[in-house]
Amino acid sequence: TGFDSDNSSGDFSEANHKVPEMLDLDPHQSNRTGKHNGETEIQENGIKRHRTSLPAPMFSRSDFSVWSILKKCIGLELSKITMPIVFNEPLSFLQRITEYMEHIYLINKACSHADPLERMQAVAAFAVSAVASQWERTGKPFNPLLGETYELTREDLGFRFISEQVSHHPPISAFYSEGLNKDFVFHGSIYPKLKFWGKSIEAEPRGTITLELLKHNEAYTWTNPTCCVHNVIIGKLWLEQYGMVEIVNHSTGDKCVLNFKPCGLFGKELHRVEGYIQDKHKKKLCVIYGKWTECLWCTDPTTYETYKKSEKRGSEQKKKSNEEDIKSENDEADEMPEVQDTVQFIPGSKLLWRINCRPPNSSQMYNFTSFAVSLNELEAGMEAILAPTDCRLRPDIRNMENGNMDVASKEKERLEEKQRAARKERAKDEVEWHTRWFHQGTNPYTGTPDWLYSGGYFDRDFSDCPDIY
Q1: End-to-end CA distance of the chain
Q2: Which domains does the chain have, with CATH numbers?
């Protein structure tokens, strides 16, 4: 998420690079609503029908090698490397953050529960679902320009959302969302710390995420797991999430500890999530298990331990045989393990969350979910009320979405040059950059530095917004 920069490294010129041919898209799938130019259908119940397809299919990346770019930049800071636009997806990172809200029904479920344990279970499922949209999404979002914003109001889902790029070096994105029924507030800031390990790129998402359930006077905080993209040198790109995620209920003292397990040598743990919820006395209340790409279940600790012991006794020989088969098939190219099994259901478990089905033509739309497909939609009349800094108005993203890759690449270079020139002008005049909708402060629950919403965005006074496009 930090590749693009106004400090380009190396002599690569993406505008002069030949763009590969577009993939064929089934004409019957290309536009089910028939609305791509700002016209939004209205369903019989009065709710707006959002688009179900992008205006143009994605371009093939088979003619390009990430390594051809990265090998010139070994030892450099990854946030200062400019990647060719063909590796992007037509969304800004601010829009990517908004995908946290795809499974907002889990927040609504948490608000409705009277039992604090059930609330924590729903919040834990929401935290896992927030990274589920990244499954098979190997295209990188556009790095936001300083001062860039994105808003989303979904009356059908009951929330509104605003985000702003508050810092360029380091790249920091701040966001704030609230329920239209005033039942929750969801906010935080994301600072992706990138590391290049040769065959893989690791993104550590620093920054605190906070969810407040206003009816219950509760606040939960956590940090997302680490994301790693494999095979940047050779082979098929694939990603995994790993690391410990600790969700704390600051009102009750309850805590949920989730272990996003790394793939491992034989791929046995690929995509697996396992953890538990404990009370303030560190007593385990339930066990959570599943896959962040599929579903999440919970059961009581006794049932879980009994099942695991029984499974271990009955499958030792089978496990040994399977590992030998997988080991013989793996090669040195760091290919994604072909693990066919799904989550092993433990009798008596309760389903907390299941991933949404993607559109049938998702593979030709950057593997977007139905929610992601709608994020850059520019509806009729919307341009007149949006902030001039909104992602939907970015010409490079808009042109890429429409399949105009050469124009998108040139626009991207123009915007980066404009950002460089503006920064130099501020330095010359000794003028500091001031954020518009967020300010630096302290998270009231963790006591750590955070970016807090200043308010006022939805009053729609955009008279002092910067000209960044």
Answers
A1: 20
A2: 67-312+339-459 (2.40.160.120)
